[in-house]
């Protein structure tokens, strides 16, 4: 489902101002290593992200850039040998002070999962228990967090959840293998919404589905978001899909966020060379024909990252300073942009060039602030 025409996009996701609500989840300086000692790999390096109430935040990038590692670390589901080296993940409740998920006690973390934040995994068949009926799996989730509820109440809630995601309540007696891939993914979404969380994290939930089922599930998610008001973190390698559904997009490369802006700004006015490359890696379905550019080379070895910009070897706009100076996120917002827009590129960071004693460089038209 790779389409970027405005009519399709507006029909699926009505325009929404990025960052319009108050923060519900803040990731600050999150760093993750795999392994120990001198052989450890820095998979995430000081990632900062903020998710606002009711917002759809898209997380995009090539395989291995750190998207899934970021959300598994933020929800404390990171499996060994992954290790959270630094940072904090602040959840803002509706009432009271924010809490750091990374420092919650085990019982507090169990209470928070599914109720404050819920996660939809990529492979529904691997997430659902094959020997239990889907109704049992839905009611078990509810019973774990609401032990005072009756069996009848839990079953009625399970039927309501299935109706909510477009599945007949009669399917409550089905086993996972008796459902199609799209229906299994809908069951996972129903399970994630069972306790009405304020944050829904979706890790490439439509990757294995055909384009028709992708469309149906995405429309369902957007309708439920508008109805229930939860915020969404949507992870995918398909930037064209995010352009349709996201309010804001964060582009990741080599364990860092390299561009963070409103979805419209990323599509119409990308400012990082990597974002430009991603946008030219899929064909437009409307307008004049254009040659697909793609991105030459391969992502860097995370165990041996270069001293400067990790994208330098693949960048068509590289300058000498890119080989030695590591870029950080800086604001490039101008009137009409999302005011929180940020890009990690030396062509937009004169202060970093001056601090390194490097000459100023021109911003090419493809990356220009306009």
Q: What is the tally of helical segments?
A: 12
Average residue-wise pLDDT: 86
Morphology call: globular
Oligomerization category of the chains in this entry? single chain
Rg from Cα: 21 Å
Q: Could you list the spans in which at least 5 consecutive residues all have pLDDT below 50?
A: 1-12
The sequence of SSEs as H and E is HEEEHEEHEHHHHEHEHEEHHEEH
Q: DSSP strand (E) fraction?
A: 15-25%
Helix content: 25-40%
Largest sheet, if any?
8 strands, mixed
Give the strand tally: 12
- The assigned structural class equals alpha/beta
- Order of strands across the main sheet: 6-7-8-3-9-10-12-11
Tell me what you see in this structure.
The chain is an alpha/beta fold. Helix content is 29%, strand content 20%. The chain contains twelve helices and twelve strands. The chain has helices at residues 6-12, 67-74, 106-112, 124-127, 134-145, 151-164, 181-192, 211-228, 239-245, 263-268, 273-279, 350-355, and strands at 23-34, 41-52, 56-60, 82-91, 99-100, 117-120, 199-203, 231-236, 248-253, 256-262, 330-331, 342-343. Strands 6-7-8-3-9-10-12-11 form an eight-stranded mixed β-sheet, with helices on both faces. Residues 1-12 have low confidence and may be disordered.
Top keywords for this entry?
disordered N terminus, 370 residues, 8-stranded mixed β-sheet, 4-stranded antiparallel β-sheet, 20% strand, globular
